[in-house]
Amino acid sequence: MNILLILVPVSVVLVGLAIWAFFWAVDNGQFDDLESPALDMLREDPAPVSVTPPDREPP
Amino acid sequence: MNSEATRRCFHCGEALDGGACTALVGGQQQTFCCAGCLAAAEWLHTGGLGDFYRLRSRLSPKSEHEADYSAWDSAAFQRLYVRPSDPQQSAPTAVEMDLSFDGIRCAACAWLIPKVAASLPGVIGIDLNPATGRARLCWNPQQIPLSAIVERFALLGYRARVAAAGVDAQRAARRSSLKRIAVAGLAAMQAMMMSEALYFGGTEMGLPTRDFFRVITLLLATPVVLWAGAPFFRGALIEWRFRRLGMDTLVALSIGLAYATSVVETLRGGPQVYFDAAVMFVFFLLVARHVEAMARDHARAGIDRLQTLPDTVVRVAGEQLVTVGLLEVAIGDVLQVAVGENIPADGSVESASAEVDESLLTGEVESQRRQHGERVLAGSVVLTAPVRIRVTALGAETWIAQLSRLVSHSAAQRPVVVQRAERWAARFVAVMIALAAAAGATWFFIDATKVLPVILAVLAAACPCAFALAVPATLTAAQARLARHGILLLHAQALERAAAIDRVAFDKTGTLTSGQPQVASIEIFDAATTPAQALALAAALERGHRHPLARAFGAAADAGLALTESSAVVGAGVAGVVAGHALRLGRRQFADRPEVEDDGRVWLSRDRQTLAAFTLTDHLRDEAAATISALHAAGFSTLIYSGDANAKVRSIAASLRIARAYGELRPEQKLSLLKAEQHSGHRIAMVGDGINDAPVLAAADLAIAIGEAAPMAQKTADVVLLRPLLSLLPELFATAHQAQRVLKQNLAWAVAYNTLMLPMAVLGVMPPWLAALGMSLSSLLVVLNAARLLRQPKPSRRQRALRWLPVTLSNAGWRR
Q1: Does B55 sit within 8 Å of A43, measured CB to CB?
Q2: Is the dihedral of CA B333, B338, B342, B348 positive or negative?
């Protein structure tokens, strides 16, 4: 049963990771608006843009 | 596409009376009501945002392309509302302010606004809460002036206003509540897993393993109790400071005691730990409070919409007109208000006369006429001609502000049922703490080792958790279900009252009818004129007028006759010249015979010769008949209390099979009829739309306001039907009955549970963990029972298929 000595702390660490991930999501506003993002997928893809976005270097 | 659809503006859906413009937008020919709507649609399509028109489930607000926000760039305004934004997140010169948007009607609007903001150079970001219409705008003033940003939104139909503070606070509260729930939930699951092992490991588990498990549980439970559970300890502290026993005291006491004991037991290797009880407690209660707070926030959003006064006004300074911020206006100033604008302050009319629409304030749809020196109220809309007013009251002193304070106050109140439950709980808590202490003291003489387990078991078994959850869980579920249908409860006790209703009384105007007059019959007095010609003349005269009656001669009859010299006479009618003849349309005295009594019809004359008389009627709402028969089938009796002519009321009552209908009533007569019904033991719901019914609405057991037309009247009701659909009434009563049933079940269960568990806990036959488990299960049962209210009747296969259509989806997003 010594495996418990590893597995149980691992589970605690996993809980910590899950909480950290959730905090990150909350702080990034993932839960602020639960409605309009659902509409984004219904939008047609934009026509291919010929201009390179200014904030990205061309390859 | 049928002819009806082509006669409406592509952007805002307004009926087109003549002056329409057409343009090629997104590859299709579309018609628009004004240059603003056209510009909005063109701009959206060129910006690649044309999808908005496909995503939206409701029509857009009308474009406000002439809105002037230049005062927003003034130093005074910027000093008051604009603040530097967090330099860590954006450029050092960036600033931000809180806005409140009008016209956010569906999820597509919430989708569009950030996209529009992103397309403007210099705008750093916008944080929009679609439920409340509030937003935080962050931009770089060196790249774009504030007025340019808000004018762009106004062009699209979303008028921005200065929002009161609180956007951030509300969001921060919501975020922190979510985080606490996450910590409590995740850690509680882990702690429960460990505790299970401890329970069932029993004597076979070696002491080192047991202690290892306990330390891990301690590690998990500590943040849950000390951080996630902090609001309960804070609440208990506040209750203690006010010498008032509440739920928080008991919760904090049991969590604290369970945790503290367990820590001590862990350290000294005692026989039993109770971490599981503590963490489950915290988790369940946090979830319940979060749900309750969300429901309250949502109800509050409606109040924000009351703040509809403009931010900038035009002040008359000698011969000059100056645009200034509303805050710079002082009492005694003279302001000029354009047609279609809201009056910004209470004041007296400086112009010779004024015609105003007070429907926002009073629910009265008929326009009101005010003479020089008479009072006009902030929030009314100017009709017919620009008006100058002398300011008599500003800001918080205006009537609209006083009324909205009243509403905020009532919204902040806790429902009576909850208050009652809390009062009971306070007594209960006091008794339970005494009982736990007494049980502990008694056990001290019987078996000293069982003192702590017994105290904990009593506290856990006694915790009126299920009892405390029973009311809010049921109310919230019922409120959510009603909100999904577009029914808003303004007080939670409205649900309780709705369940007791057995009679439904209607106010005829605007309630059973659509509120849009139509031409019912035309009497012709001139042999050479046909009814169609008379209608065409009337439509030409009314073209461009926003008077409610003008809609009766709407686009359908407009043959595009050229009109010159159009003028409106307040309270009388309109005059104009068509094909060289002077035409008049309006009251009989105005149109042809000054000496004759007014007969309610609309008269048309040409060169003072009577041409025709139009009888206008309001037609019944489409769903009225079905609703009334549904109400009858459900055992309600229906009544009409109306101020309209008896004949009209009787004909409507007959077509709807309403047996008792009273017409020509003054408000005090309505009131005495209502009181008489109540004295004979009936509970009456009054369905109305205006403040002219206010005494009656207030006296009724339940006041229901219909539609969005009259926001102020809505706020004084108990229940608001957000969509003007009478068919929501049966749903309201059905939900109220079901909620009342669920509430009784929940309360019965909670009381039964506590009475059963307590003796066992006192007698020491129940270990604390079992009491905590029972408490959790009991709470869960109550919540699940309440959740039954949210269950929809099984949808048909067709409906299930339809659910995947985009329009249905976006509808679902709007309904909450």
Answers
A1: yes
A2: positive
